[in-house]
Amino acid sequence: MAWALTFLAIAVALFLIEFFVPSGGVLGFLGSCCLVAFIIMLFIEDTRLGLIGAAVVLIAIPPSVAVAIKYYPETRVARLLKLHNDPMSETAERGDAAVDADRQSKTMIGKQGKTVTPLRPVGVCLIEGKRYDCIAEGGVIRADREVEVVEAEPLQLKVREL
User: Fold this and answer.
1) Which residue from 13, 18, 45, 106 has the highest number of Cβ atoms inside 10 Å of its Cβ?
2) Is 90 inside any structural domain?
3) 61: domain range?
4) What does the alpha-carbon distance between residue 162 and residue 155 come to, in Å, rounded to a whole number?
5) Which helix (H) or strand (E) covers residue 8, if one does?
6) Dihedral pair phi/psi, residue 118, rounded to 5°
7) Of 46, 43, 38, 32, which Cα lies nearest the Cα of 3?
8) Final residue of a domain: which of 47, 81, 115?
9) What is the CA radius of gyration of the chain?
10) How many other β-carbons are positioned within 10 Å of the β-carbon of residue 109?
11) What is the pTM for the complete model shown?
């Protein structure tokens, strides 16, 4: 009986450590093996005890997983592993990039610059010292030509040769 309780204690400890230390599931697997050993030890002791232990483990697993899923994202490890490009959380901090790009593109209409590469119909223009991907309004515009922005969308500028 002492071995069974030892395996149970080790399993619980391994699951708790897995919750806070990213091991790729190794500690969780070892904890599961300890739970199986716990149940086997109970069956060796007494069949009825083994059935009760198996039932308790099977009943305890779903709520334990639910609690882990609920609280894991709040742990330090989960925050370190999480990608930091969640648009909902960053919008308030840095502003929405799409809205900023849209505002910037509206101010670009009427500005003049020079083509860096030929626009066939897409190419690169230098406007106010910055390089932008541009689309020629009609046809091809050769390199080193003066252009004016006639239409602007967040990621695209339409230009016309002067």
Assistant:
1) 18
2) no
3) 2-81
4) 22
5) helix 2-20
6) -65, 140
7) 38
8) 81
9) 31
10) 13
11) 0.47
Burial class (CB in 10 A: 0-12, 13-18, 19+), 68: middle
Place of tokens 């083994």: 50
Q: Which amino acid is at 99?
A: V
CATH number for the domain that contains residue 142: 2.40.50.140
Structure tokens that stand for 93 in this block: 């901090």
CA distances (Å), 94 to each of 75, 89, 97, 135, in order? Answer: 24, 9, 8, 29
91 domain-assigned: no
Residues 6+ apart with CB under 8 A from 86: none
| Chain segment 99-123, per-residue pLDDT in tens | 455 556 678 888 999 999 999 888 9
Q: Which two tokens stand for residue 68?
A: 């882990």
Which of 20, 48, 81 is the last residue in one of the domains? 81
Same domain, 54 and 110: no
- Give per-residue pLDDT as tens, 39-60: 999 999 899 999 999 999 999 9
Neighbours of 122 (CB within 10 A): 12
Whether residue 77 is found in the same domain as residue 110: no
Inside any domain, residue 86: no
Residue the block writes with tokens 């071995």: 3
Question: What amino acid is encoded at 28 in this protein?
Answer: G
